[in-house]
Write a structure and sequence with these properties.
The structure is a homotrimer of 132-residue chains.
Chain A (H helix, E strand, L loop, with lengths): L2 E6 L5 E4 L1 H11 L4 E6 L5 E7 L3 H14 L13 H10 L2 E7 L2 E2 L5 E7 L5 E10 L1
Antiparallel strand pairs in A: 1-8, 2-7, 3-5, 3-8, 4-7, 5-6
């Protein structure tokens, strides 16, 4: 099995900063140079990299995704969470990040965000590291 | 050349479940642990991971992409298939999936979907596996 | 540090073809078979793969992203560039491309595009190659 890290979301829609837990896993794996793939094994949640400084940025992304994919609409899926599935595919199911010197290589303003669209729930992220 | 798997779509817009052909390729490659990258070498088709249980989910994603990127609009590209190009970039050109124990690691409800936006056509998917 | 390639954008919104600089880096690295990850360390720019033949395709994608995420809206982020952040997450922060025979493997019509959404600026792309 891949490494599985449990996380818990607290809102219906939420961008959760998972950068620290991913960095901690990489530090413990003692991989110096390579790639980290962070994979979301869910279909109503996604993952993205965006600004970690001002929380208003995440709020604006979530609000705008809601405008693009409104909760109320003519969806066929009986469970009623089609908007969450659509948003998940718009954000994507994994991110790939370079590891150098034992650390995730992110831009100054970047953080890795788990994108909850059908919470709150107990979720998992899976990580696989490949050494260079 | 990377491994090339031919597929055929049957609709103008269609989500085609390619999970079995990707799994079969990985089983034959006898890679136990690593990463699989599934790449779409086309510009009017994409790839995504989403629910495989209820086909209404794929129908809702396709229908909603059509609302976000309508066929009729003021597009400049003379071939008339700009909406397909736009949808392709919204979904993305590749997915990366963890391999453990010789098997694709997907969540319970996840499948890998080739996203046809300008079919029906004969298409290809390319696969590259890296062992851990 | 990962390999860093500086680029300069010249427009507010622009798709810049970076295929040649990525190919040149791979040629110099003398990696025959593997994967290349091209990563954007910015939060108001993304990266995508789409058609390189007719520039109208890129123009249509940019114009339509502007329709989906208009500059004028009720955004909270005080810097005023929330639309650029939202578009960055819609396109994604990295692409993964197969390398075979020392060359990027792209479809006939595909090019790799740096997606500037808040330019013009001096930017960087980061590249990591893993050999098969």
């Amino acid at each position: 099995m891949p490494a599985q890290l449990p996380i818990a979301t607290t809102q219906k829609s939420q961008f959760l900063d998972i950068t620290p837990v991913v960095q901690e896993y990489i530090s413990e794996a003692k991989i110096v140079d390579g790639l980290a793939v962070v994979f979301v094994p869910h279909t109503t949640a996604g993952i993205t990299i965006n600004e970690h400084a001002d929380p208003d940025v995440r709020a604006d992304i979530l609000t705008h995704l809601e405008k693009i994919v409104p909760e109320k609409g003519t969806y066929r899926h009986a469970e009623g969470n089609s908007p969450a599935h659509i948003k998940a595919s718009l954000m994507g199911s994994s991110v790939t990040v370079i590891i150098s010197g034992g650390r995730l290589q992110l831009g100054t303003w970047q953080g890795i965000y788990f994108c909850e669209f059908d919470g709150p729930r107990h979720r998992n992220i899976w990580i696989r590291i490949l050494a260079k």
